[in-house]
Amino acid sequence: MMDLIRDSLYYVGVFYITYLILFATFSFFAIIIGGYKLYVGDRILKYKNRLDHDDLPISVLVPAYNESVSIVKSIYSLLELDYQFYEIIVVDDGSKDDTAQKLIDEFDMKLIERPIKRDLECQPEKAVYENIVNGVPITLICKVNGGKGDALNMGINASHYSYVLCMDADSKLQKDSLKEIAAPVYEDDAIIAVGGMILVSQCVQLDDDGKTARYRLPSNVLVASQAVEYNRSFLASRILMDTFNGNLIISGAFGLFKKSVLVAVGGYSVDNMGEDMELVIKLHGYCRNNNKKYQMRYQPSAICMTQVPTTLKDLIMQRRRWHIGLLQSMLKHRRVLLNLKFGLVSFFSYLYYLAYELLAPAIELFGIVTILLAVYIDVLNLEYMIVFFIVYAIYGAIISLSAFSQQIYTQKFRTRRLDIIKTVFVCVIEFAFFRYVLLVVRLVGFIRYGKHKNKWGKIKRV
Amino acid sequence: MVTDLRIYVIIGIFAMVCISMMVFNFGIIYHRNGNKDLSPAKIEKWKEIIYVQALAPKTIKLNERRHEKFLLRKLPTAEKLILYAAALQRLKNEFPESYDTYAEKKHEVFLELADVYGRKARIDRTCYADFISNFPELVGDVQGRLADVLISYIEDSCIYCRTKVLSALCSVGHFQGVANLLQVVHDRDLFMHNRLLTTELLKFRGDQKILGELLWNKSSSWNDSITVSVIQFVTRISDGYREMLFPILIDAAANLDVRIAAIRYYGEHKYELAHQILIDFVENPPDIDLAIAAAEALFLYPSPETVAVLKAALASPDWHVRYNASATLVKLGSREEILKALEDGSEYEKEIIAYMLELEGVLEGETFLRKTEGEMLNS
Question: Model's pTM, two decimal places?
Answer without folding.
Answer: 0.87
